[in-house]
Protein 1
Amino acid sequence: MRYGLTLLFNYTWSKALNDMPWNQAATSIGGGGSYVMPITVANYKKLDYGPADFDHRNITALSYVYLVPKFLNDSPSVLRYIVNGWGTSGIFQYHSGDPLTIWSSSANNSATHQNRDRAVYSGSSAYGASACAGVTTPCRGWLNPASFSINPAGTFGNVVKGSFVGPHYVDWDGSISRKFVFTERTSLIFQADYFNVFNHTNLGDPATTLGTTFGRITSTSPQNWTTGPGSTSDPQNSPRIAQLSLKLLF
C-alpha cells in the first residue's frame, strides 16, 4: 500500500442450503434410509432441508507484511543500524461456527427404524450456560437443556438440520524479523514466529444428543476453516507457540 506495507484482506458472507441427510456425502445416500423420515411420508425431507454441514456464514482472512522503511541516510550510523532492517508479517483468520443439529436420545420413538429422530425445540432461548451447572470437570455450557425435550412416541421431533450454531473460530499468527547486512553479498536474518499470538482457545462443538452431557463443550476444536470441519491438522489451536530462527545468506 504505502511505506512498506502490504495487505491482503478477504471477507465472505455465504449461505449454503441443501436437503441432504446430516453428515452424508452426496455419493453415499442410499434411498431414503438416512433421512429422519421414511420416504413414504409426504415431504419427508422437511427436517433435512437446512444449512449444509460445511456452511459458515462469515469467513474473514487478513494477511500483512510490513517492512520498516530505511531510516534517513544522514542519521547517525548507530541509530540507522538499530532501526533499519525490521519487518513483521502475519495472518488473521475468523469464521462463524458449525451448523448444529439436535438429536433425540430416543432415536426410534417414531417407530420407523430410521434411528435418527430429532429433539423437540420449545422455541425459548436455545443458548445458555446451564448445561454445566454442578459439573466440576472443565466444561463450557453452550446449549440450554431446558429448551429441548425428547420427541413423543410416534413423532419425529421438530428440529431442522443445522438450526443452531456452534462456537466461532479465530486465530492470529505473526512474526517479527530483523536483517543484519554485513557486506554487499552477506547478511543474517533473525526471525521470531508466534502461532496463536493471543493464546486463544477455540472451543469444540457441544454435545448435540439429549442426555446428561447435552449442550456441554468439553474439548477444543480441531478444525481449521481451510481444512474443513473435523480436521485434526490444525496446529493453530495449540497454546501459544514461539519459534526462533537464524538464516545466513551469502
Protein 2
Amino acid sequence: MKTSATSFVCAFLVTAATLPAQEWTVIFDGKSTDALRGYKEKTFPSKIWVIDGDAIKAIAGRGGDIITKETYEDFELELEWKISSGGNSGVMYRVAETNGPAWYTGPEMQVLDDQKHSDGKDPKTSAGALYALIAPNEDKKLKPVGEWNSAKIVMKNGHVEHWLNGAKVVEYEWDSPEVQALIKKSKFKDMKGFMKQKSGHIALQHHGDEVWYRNIRIRRL
C-alpha cells in the first residue's frame, strides 16, 4: 500500500504533538551544584553562593548570578524560594551571555519581600511578576519572609506562565504585539537583545541580598 507524502507528514505531526514531555532533570538536589555555573564564568562561584541545608543560598554582599550549564527553549521549571527581610532576587529564562548582565536578555519572574522592599509598592515589580512588564493577578498568594514559596515557569510554543504557590499569576505570549508594546515603554526598550532569544539559560539572580532556592528541577517540553 502506497502512503502519500501528505499522509506521512500528517502522521508525523500527530505523533510529535502527542509525545510526552521529557523526564525531569534535577538542577539542584541540595548537594551538587554540577548543573550550575556563574554567569559568564566557567565554574560555580562558591564564595558568594553556598549550600545551606537542602538549599542553595546567595550570601549578602557582592552579587553574581548563577545559570544552568544547559540552555532551554520550551520547558517547565519548578523550584522553591525564600527571601530575606527586604530582599530582592529573581528567576530569569532564555538568558544569553553578553557584555551586559543576565537581565539584559532574559525576562524575570520576580522574587521579593513585597512588604519591605520598595519594588513591592508597584505590582509590576512585585513577587511573581514578569518584572517591570506584567503584574500578577488577584490569585497571587505570597508566603511571609522566612517561609518557602513554590514557583513554576512554563514556556511552550511561545505561551509563558508564571505560577506562585499553586496559582497561575501571569501568562503572556512571548513575541506578541502586546508584550512588544510593554517593552517599548519599559527600562528594556533600548536593550536590543532583550527577549530575542529562542533558547537560553535559566538564571538565579544575586541582587546582593540573601535568598534561598531548593528543589530545582526542569524538563523540556
Protein 3
Amino acid sequence: MRIPSAPCLLLAAATFAAAGTSPRAAAARPAARLADAQSASAALKASGDAMMVEKRYEEALAAYEAAAKSSADPALHYNRGRALQFLARYPEALAALRRFQAEAPASVRARVPALTEIIDEVRARVARIRVRCDVAGARVMLARQEIGRTPFDAPLAVNAGHATLEIVAEGYVPSSSEIDLAGGEVLREIDVRLVPRNRIGVLVVKSGVAGTRAEIDGKPIGMAPAEAPLEAGQHAVAALHEGYGPVRTQVVVAAGERRELTLDPIAPTPVYKRWWLWTSVGVAVAGAVVTAVALKTEKSPPIGTFSPGQVRF
C-alpha cells in the first residue's frame, strides 16, 4: 500500500481545517445530505398521497414529481400515473404506469393486484397519430394543444376521441379538420398539404333562406353566410337545408380574389300545388260530372207506338 507523504497529509488536513471541519465530519456530509433528501422526498410523497385522497390531482402530481427528483422509489411512477390518469393526460399516465410495471420489484407490484386492468383501462383511452405534412416546421395542434412540429420521427401518443386537428405554418393557409381517434393505441395516419397564401382566393357563400348550410367540395363550411379560403381553380358548391331541395353549382375562384355567391335551397312545393294531387282531383271531378249527367239524362224505358188495348191500321 502506498502511504501518502507528509506534505499530502498536511495539505489534506489544512484543507479540512480551512473548511472548519474534520475529515470524518466531511465524509459524513454526503450521507447526511442523502438522508435529508430521502426524508424530504418521503414527506413530498406523503403530501401527494393526501392530495390524491382530496382529489387535488394537479397538486398531487406536482408533489410526486418533486419527490422523484431526489428519490428512486418506483412507487412514485405508479402514483404519478394515477394522478395523470385522473387529469385525463392518458398517454403520460400510460408511460408512467408501464415504467412502474417494468422497474418495480415483484414485492412492490404485488401491492397493486389490479395493475394490469388499470393499464388496460388507460391504454383504451390512448391513440397514436402520425402527421405527414409537405411543409417542415409546421405546428401541429390537437384539441388546441400543440403536440409538435413537422416532420415527426415517430407516431405520437395522444388522447383518443373526437378532436380538431390544426396545422399552421408561416405563409400558408392553416389546415383544420375534425377527426376521430380510436383508443387502444390504434395508429391514425394523416397526410396534409398546405397551400401557399399567394395561391388562395376566398369564397363567401350566402343564402336568402335562414338556416342554410354551405358545402364546398363536399366539406361543410358552416351556416350561410360562410366563407372559406380556397386554392385558385374550380370548386363544387352546395346549399343544403332540412326539408328543402339542395342546390349545387360550380364556381371558379382566382388567386387573391374575394368572391361572393348566393344560393337558395329549393323550397318544398305546397300540397295544393302538386301536379299529382290535381290530376287525381281532376279524375274525381270528371267522374262526378259523368255520374251527374247520367243521373239527369236517364229516361223511362220506351213503350213502343201502340197504346195499351188499341190497334191502329
Protein 4
Amino acid sequence: MLKLKHLFDNRDLALMLLENWEYDKNNIDILKFYRISANAIYPYTHNGKTFLLRFIPWDEKTENEMEKELEFIQYLQKKGLNVLEPVVPKNGGYLLKKDTPWGKYLACAFKRVDGKQLSEFEYNDEIIFGLGKTLGRLHKYSSEYNNVKKESCFEIIDRMEYFTQNKLKEDKELVLKRIGEIRNIFQKLPQNKSNFGLVHYDFELDNVFYEETSKKYSVIDFGSSMYHWYTMDIEQSLANLKEEYSQNDFEHIKTIFMNGYKTEYQIFEEEIKLFPVFRRFDNLRQYINLKDVVEETWDNEPEWMVNLRENLNNIIMEIGNNLREDL
C-alpha cells in the first residue's frame, strides 16, 4: 500500500501522464472511477476501448522493479497466459519516467482484460478448478523463466529487519524474533527451479477475471510479484477463498482448487505442511508495511484519511496479536 500522502485523487497528474498515450479526450470523466492502493489506477478509453493508466511515485518503487514486472508480464503473454497487455506510450518502451509538479513518477498503461472479477461470481466447482489450474499454469511458466530476477523474499526479510531495528517503536523485540524465525526456516527449505521462482503474490479473486462465454481466465496486478516458493501463492489464494466462502465448504473448495492446480504443475506436499510459516511471512510483511504507511501524520487530515488510519491501525493491532502466538 502507498503512503497515505499518495492516496489523494489527482486527476491533473493522471491527465499529464496520460498525454503520453493515445486516449479519447472527449471521455475524461471516466477518470473518476480511479482506484489507489499499491498504485494509482485510472481508467481511460481509446477508440471506445477501455485501458488502465497505472502510476507510482519514484520513492515507492524502483524503475528496475517495474521494468522486470513488465518483462515478466510480456513473457507470460507470449506463453499464452491471459494477462494485462502493456500499451506502448508515444515515445516508445513500456515504462514512462516523468518529472511532474508533484514529483517524479513511473507510469505504464494496459489494455483492460475481458470478463469480470471472480469475486463477482457465485462459487461453483468449475470456476474454482479453473482458478487453481490458472495458478498452476502461471507457476509452470515461471519455472521456465530465465530473466533477471526481481526482489526475493530474502531481500524483503532484510528490509523488514532494517525497518524494525531502525523505525519500529512498539514490539520491536517480538517482531525481530519472528523475522529471525522465518529467516531460519526459509534458509533450511530446499530451493530449486521447480519450487522457487517468480510468484504473483496477490493471486486473489479480485485479481483474476473470468469471461463466461469463452470461459477464459485473465490475471492482473503483478505489482507485488517477487521470488518466493510457489507454495506462497497457493497459501495466499486459499486464504482468500477461505475468507470469501463458507467455512463448511472450504475443505471441498481447497480440494477442487488443488486438483485444478495439479493438472498444470506439481504440488510440493512438504511445503504445504508449512502453510502457517508462509502465512507468518505475509503477516509480518503486512504489519511492517502498514506501520510504515501510518507513521507520518499531518495537521487537519481529511476525514477519509482519519478513518483509513483508524482502520489500518485496527489491522495492525490484529496482526500484532497474531504475531504473539508461536507457530
